[in-house]
Structure formats: structure tokens, C-alpha cells
């Protein structure tokens, strides 16, 4: 009896947004009297970080500090339309809508600054610290707080912008099947290193190597967290989770956290993650969606690693000790010693 | 059995409220006292997000009948920061990216507080054991383990310089 080590890999190509498109998201942006830019969205942040991404896109486009951006996702009844945070679409669709809205708002901001400074708007630039200044004459400048006050109370202007991103719906050509299925695809490869105990059938994932081509990682820390949290969920699907474990009747299945098997903090593989960046033409600053795909590649990679370790080819998840042992038994029957 | 007046020391302040028979500590904290940091997840002691400290021990508040802890000192996440200043565990959770959706975070921080109170220099295995009753579905646990070890380091450093 031994602990057998194996290594396997799997790759995934994953489309960003709804298949065949037709899924718009909107963003509205306006400056308050004191120069805070409120980005109104109906896109929900459930921890994936869309508020951070939206704030980054708005700040970058406006040319203002991120502290000047407030993202409001409070109310889907009154907010601008969002198709939803699913299909790995948030960063791509919402990010693009925010950039469009912020670009319009930036245009107005520069127009008002031009009036305020009595120069041409084309001669103005932002420096990312909150000032709008004349190119080549840095002393001639106005701070966004003063500018927003002047816009409201002196010029009667609203510094605002509208944005929407729609991947136009595509229908397959019946004769050829030709279509435009997605805006862009992210790619990933995971290598799993496992240890299989051929006496107990227990599989332990020792290491995961995750490589993700994400277009552009707008926030590398959050992207890495998504990759590794998603990989954990992949390990969980591969080895633990099922609502129909061993029992003949569905009635005996788990109904709650007490009976539903999940890996705990002691079941953690060591993860090594690498982000590759090949910006997508239609992505917000080149970004693609990597939400859902992060749970995908680890599962077949682990299955392949189990095969490499002990010769058992498993095709049904989760890869439980019982299934591994049955597979080992079958191998022994095939090849009697 | 009639409702009764229960008195608790909550985050250093004496609080009295009327509790229905069998009311849980969690329900009283959330509904009678308005302290909503401790969350109701599974309501059966399996997920850990309702964890508060009862006389320094981490307990699943959803399983504690409030009359059984009358007079005890309760510490909730609301009592961890000093004014606007986050403590070492809270700031390490931010710096180490140890939250995503945040639903498990109140419980994770409270078990970490209890751990560091009794052991200022825990091993990684100690941290893993301490949080093993708390479910997280986003992070894969690793950033949480790292954050708690980092919080311990910062707290020891602060103790030396003080």
C-alpha cells in the first residue's frame, strides 16, 4: 500500500458575457457640487469586486483620483439597466459602460474648465491628482472641487455622462452555422499535483499551478483572488461536493452545511498563480471576464492527475475514496498478479 | 414560561432587554440590541458566521439560549475597533485581501480575536484549527489564514514597542 503521486493538466477557453450577446448594461455618472463623481449602476457587488472595477474605470477615464469616485449600486428599480452579474460579464460590460459615461463627463468637465480658465478645452489635461491644468502651463489650473462648484453655481452646467455597452445579438446562419458567439475569450491552464492513497482511496490535492490569460488584469490582486478562490471551489467540486452522495434515495442527501461535504481550511493545496495579459480590443482597458472559468480547469486537471498517479480514470464527480477504490479494484481484476 | 429581562455586558456596556423564552443570543443581539455584525447563516452551529465571544470563548450565538448566559460578558465585532481605529485583525483582513462577499468575515474575525487572546504566537496549524468551524465559500481560506498570522505578528510587534 502506498501514497501515489500524480500530475495532470487541463485547459479552458471561456467566453465573456452572454452567449451570442444581446446583454446590455448601462452606467450613469454625475458630479456632485463638490466634485465627487457618482457612478450609478444596477450591477450588484456580491464580493466579486464590480464596485472597485467600476471606480477604477471611472477614475482612469476622468483623470481624477479614485477617491473622487463614488459607485452607487443601491437600487435596481431606480438605477440604469444592467442585465446582471453573471456570465463573467460584469468587468467587461459594466466596465465599458462606465468608460463611455466617464468619457462624456470628462468632456463636459474640460468644457467647463475651459470657460473657467478662459482657454480652449483642447489645451487642457488632467494629472490624476484632482487638477485640470493647461498643457505646458501647469500653474494655470483649477481643482475639481472648485470646478464642480463653479459648474453648478456659476455656469449652470451639469458634469455628467451616459454609457451603455451592448454586444449586438448574433444569430447563427442556418446554412453554415456561422455566428459571432462572444465578445472575447479568456484562456487558462491548471496543473494539479495530487497524492492518491491506494489503501483508503483518499485523494489529496497538493499543489495547483494556475495560468490565466485575462486580457488585462485591471486589479491584479482581485484577479488573483478570483483565480485562487475559484480554484478552491474547483477542488471542492472535484473531491467533495455533491447533493447525491452514496445513497440510493435522494431523501438521504445532504440538506445543510452539517451534511454537505466541503473542504475546510486544512484541505488547502499550495497555489501558484500567474496572470498573462493580452488586451482584448473590445474590453475595458483590454480586460476580459474571468469570473466563472476559475472553477473549471482544476476539476479535469485533478482527474488527469489521479489517472497519472494510479491509473484510475474517473469520469463522475466528486472523485470520492469509494470511486477511487472501485477503480483500483477494477484495474486489479483486469490485470491479475 | 414568560418573557424575562436579561442583562448582558455587551462590548463593555451593560445592556438590558426583554427576551422571549428560548430566544437565542444571536436573535437578541441582532433584534433587541441592533448589533447586526454577527450573521444568521445556517442557524444550526455549522457555518460560524454568528460567532461572538462569551466570557472570552468563541460561541455560535445561534445555538445559545440567551438566558443561559445572563450576566456574561459578550464581545461582538462591533466592539473590536476602538472608535474609528480598526484593530490588528481587522486591518490585516483588509491588507491581506481576506474578504470577498464578507458574510463569513464577522465570525472569522471573532474566532481570530479569541485565538490571539489566548495565544499571541499561533502556528499556521493553530490558525487552521481555530477557523475550522467557520465556512468561507469565496476565498479558499488561504488569505484568511495569512491575515490572522499577520495580525498576530502586528499585535506582538505592538506589544514590544509599547
From TrEMBL, chain A:
Gene3D superfamilies, alphabetized: Aldehyde oxidase/xanthine dehydrogenase, molybdopterin binding domain
InterPro entries cross-referenced by the UniProt entry: AldOxase/xan_DH_MoCoBD2, AldOxase/xan_DH_Mopterin-bd_sf, N-heterocyclic_Hydroxylase
GO molecular function: oxidoreductase activity
Annotated SUPFAM superfamilies: Molybdenum cofactor-binding domain
Start and end residues of each Aldehyde oxidase/xanthine dehydrogenase second molybdopterin binding domain: 3-269
Bilayer-crossing regions: none
PANTHER family: ALDEHYDE DEHYDROGENASE
Name of this chain's protein: Molybdopterin-binding domain of aldehyde dehydrogenase
The species this protein was found in: Nonomuraea jiangxiensis
UniProtKB/TrEMBL annotation, chain B:
InterPro entries in the cross-refs: 2Fe-2S-bd, 2Fe-2S-bd_dom_sf, 2Fe-2S_ferredoxin-like_sf, 2Fe-2S_ferredoxin-type, 2Fe2S_fd_BS, Beta-grasp_dom_sf, Diverse_Oxidoreductases
GO molecular function: 2 iron, 2 sulfur cluster binding; metal ion binding; oxidoreductase activity
Residue ranges occupied by any 2Fe-2S ferredoxin-type domain in the UniProt entry: 4-80
Leader peptide range in chain numbering: none
Keywords: 2Fe-2S, Iron, Iron-sulfur, Metal-binding, Oxidoreductase
Protein known as: Carbon-monoxide dehydrogenase small subunit
Lineage: Bacteria, Bacillati, Actinomycetota, Actinomycetes, Streptosporangiales
Amino acid at each position: 500500500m502506498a501514497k501515489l503521486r500524480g500530475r495532470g493538466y487541463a485547459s479552458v477557453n471561456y467566453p465573456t458575457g452572454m452567449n451570442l450577446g444581446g446583454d446590455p448594461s448601462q452606467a450613469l455618472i454625475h458630479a456632485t457640487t463638490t466634485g465627487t463623481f457618482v457612478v450609478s449602476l444596477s450591477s450588484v457587488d456580491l464580493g466579486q469586486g464590480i464596485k472597485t472595477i467600476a471606480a477604477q474605470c471611472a477614475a482612469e477615464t476622468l483623470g481624477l483620483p479614485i477617491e473622487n469616485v463614488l459607485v452607487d449600486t443601491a437600487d435596481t428599480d431606480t438605477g440604469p439597466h444592467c442585465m446582471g452579474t453573471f456570465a463573467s460579464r460584469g468587468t467587461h460590460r459594466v466596465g465599458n459602460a462606465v468608460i463611455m459615461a466617464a468619457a462624456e463627463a470628462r468632456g463636459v468637465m474640460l468644457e467647463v474648465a475651459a470657460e473657467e480658465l478662459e482657454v480652449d478645452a483642447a489645451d487642457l489635461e488632467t494629472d490624476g491628482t484632482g487638477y485640470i491644468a493647461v498643457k505646458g502651463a501647469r500653474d494655470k489650473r483649477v481643482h475639481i472641487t472648485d470646478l464642480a462648484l463653479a459648474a453648478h453655481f456659476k455656469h449652470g452646467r451639469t458634469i455628467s455622462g451616459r454609457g451603455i455597452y451592448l454586444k449586438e445579438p448574433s444569430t447563427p446562419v442556418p446554412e453554415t452555422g456561422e455566428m459571432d458567439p462572444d465578445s472575447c475569450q479568456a484562456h487558462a491552464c491548471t496543473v494539479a499535483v495530487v497524492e492518491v492513497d491506494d489503501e483508503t482511496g483518499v485523494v489529496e490535492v497538493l499543489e495547483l499551478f494556475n495560468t490565466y490569460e485575462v486580457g488585462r488584469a485591471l486589479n491584479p490582486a482581485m484577479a488573483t483572488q478570483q483565480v485562487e478562490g475559484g480554484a478552491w471551489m474547483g477542488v471542492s467540486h472535484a473531491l467533495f461536493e455533491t447533493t447525491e452522495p452514496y445513497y440510493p434515495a435522494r431523501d438521504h442527501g445532504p440538506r445543510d452545511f452539517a451534511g454537505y461535504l466541503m473542504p475546510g481550511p486544512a484541505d488547502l493545496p499550495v497555489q501558484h498563480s500567474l496572470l498573462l495579459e493580452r488586451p482584448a480590443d473590445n474590453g475595458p482597458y483590454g480586460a476580459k471576464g474571468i469570473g466563472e472559468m476559475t472553477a473549471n480547469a482544476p476539476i479535469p486537471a485533478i482527474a488527469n492527475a489521479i489517472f497519472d498517479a494510479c491509473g484510475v480514470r474517473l469520469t463522475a464527480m466528486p472523485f470520492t475514496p469509494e470511486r477511487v477504490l472501485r477503480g483500483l479494484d477494477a484495474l486489479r481484476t483486469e490485470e491479475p498478479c | 414560561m414568560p418573557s424575562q429581562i436579561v442583562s448582558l455586558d455587551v462590548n463593555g456596556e451593560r445592556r438590558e432587554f426583554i427576551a422571549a423564552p428560548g430566544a437565542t443570543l444571536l436573535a437578541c443581539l441582532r433584534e433587541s440590541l441592533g448589533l447586526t455584525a454577527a450573521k444568521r447563516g445556517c442557524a444550526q452551529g455549522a457555518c460560524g458566521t454568528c460567532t461572538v465571544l462569551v466570557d472570552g470563548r468563541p460561541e455560535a450565538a445561534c445555538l445559545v439560549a440567551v438566558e443561559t448566559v445572563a450576566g456574561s460578558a459578550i464581545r461582538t465585532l462591533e466592539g473590536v475597533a476602538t472608535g474609528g481605529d480598526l484593530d490588528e485583525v481587522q486591518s490585516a483582513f483588509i491588507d491581506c485581501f481576506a474578504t470577498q462577499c464578507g458574510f463569513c468575515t464577522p465570525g472569522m474575525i471573532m474566532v481570530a480575536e479569541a485565538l490571539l487572546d489566548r495565544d499571541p504566537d499561533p502556528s499556521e496549524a493553530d490558525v487552521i484549527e481555530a477557523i475550522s468551524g467557520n465556512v468561507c465559500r469565496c476565498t479558499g481560506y488561504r488569505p484568511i489564514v495569512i491575515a490572522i498570522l499577520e495580525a498576530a505578528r502586528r499585535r506582538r510587534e505592538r506589544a514590544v514597542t509599547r
